[in-house]
Specification:
The protein is an alpha+beta fold. The chain is built from nine helices and six strands, in the order αβαβαββαβααβααα. Strand 3 and strand 4 (83-91) form a beta hairpin. The radius of gyration is 24 Å and the shape is elongated.
Length: 293
């Protein structure tokens, strides 16, 4: 049996998660979230500059106003990867005075331009779409429970879904506390995290099932079975999470400003997914198993 008793110390792992999640829930209730323009709507401005400009130049002129996270796109026949004369800026809803000040700043710092279009737009992710996304997530969890119950047993399915819910709460906690912006890419990040986490959890559950068939009658100790299964798959779990994290850290540090929040969500989610697969899902299954007894 492995020297480190992961299953036996499961209360410690549960408490560690609660120490992160409870302050997060309090922050969600008090501070809420910093929703981006995909959720709140905003302002679209199309500008045509006299000379080609880059996204970096536009973003630098918006930074003093806290708008460096705005969506900036280059377009037109003269556009390239680095610069263009046609620029579309999508940012949060601006008051008239604030808009004039920002436009003046762009002209001073970047160059002369002609305003081609300026309008306010509604949220692209409406309340109905959010509700549909939540319903889809809940339905997927129910299907996960049914599938795992069929392939393994019902308690495996419950433990897996609770671990997924744990990962989502961890990501929401960090976004609420840090007040990072939540936009449509955040929804994509959550779905990616769910897929990663359940895959890692299933690998460990499958090993537990195999070990139950091989050793349970001889050993008779579920703690030992769970610990053996976790350590047999530990190398695979660590290799997977480090590979994902290396790539995501590269995206975070070397990608553009618009990808930082997406990459940050993946970093937190991948780390939490690895933690929950090892320290939450399997020990939680063991707890449910013991409760039945």
């Amino acid at each position: 049996m492995p020297k480190f008793d992961i299953a036996g110390k499961r209360k410690i792992w549960f408490i560690i998660s609660l120490l992160i999640i409870i302050p997060g829930l309090i922050s969600m209730l008090i501070r809420g979230f910093n929703f981006g323009i995909d959720f709140t709507g905003g302002t679209i401005i199309d500008l045509k500059f006299e000379n080609p400009v880059s996204i970096t130049q536009i973003r630098s002129s918006l930074k003093p106003y806290g708008l460096d996270g705005a969506i900036i796109q280059l377009s037109g026949e003269t556009s390239s990867v680095e610069s263009s004369t046609d620029v579309m800026i999508r940012t949060t809803d601006l008051e008239e005075n604030e808009r004039k000040e920002i436009m003046s700043s762009i002209k001073t710092q970047v160059g002369n331009y002609q305003v081609m279009r300026e309008e306010k737009v509604g949220a692209t992710i409406g309340g109905e779409l959010i509700l549909n996304a939540v319903m889809a997530l809940v339905i997927s969890w129910l299907l996960i429970i049914l599938y795992i119950a069929y392939r393994f047993e019902f308690r495996f399915g419950i433990a897996a879904v609770i671990a997924l819910f744990h990962d989502i709460l961890i990501v929401l906690t960090f976004f609420s506390i840090t007040q990072r912006q939540i936009d449509s890419s955040f929804v994509a990040a959550l779905l990616t995290i769910v897929g990663y986490s359940i895959n890692d959890t299933i690998v460990i559950f499958d090993r537990i099932r195999e070990n139950l068939k091989l050793h349970f009658k001889r050993a008779g100790e579920l703690n030992e079975i769970v610990n053996r299964s976790i350590f047999q798959t530990l190398t695979r779990s660590l290799y997977t999470v480090f590979t994902c994290l290396f790539t995501t850290f590269a995206l975070y540090f070397f990608g553009g400003e618009t990808t930082k929040d997406f990459a940050f969500a993946l970093i937190i989610g991948f780390a939490s997914g690895c933690y929950s697969s090892i320290f939450i899902a399997s020990p939680l299954w063991l707890t449910l198993k013991n409760w039945r007894k």
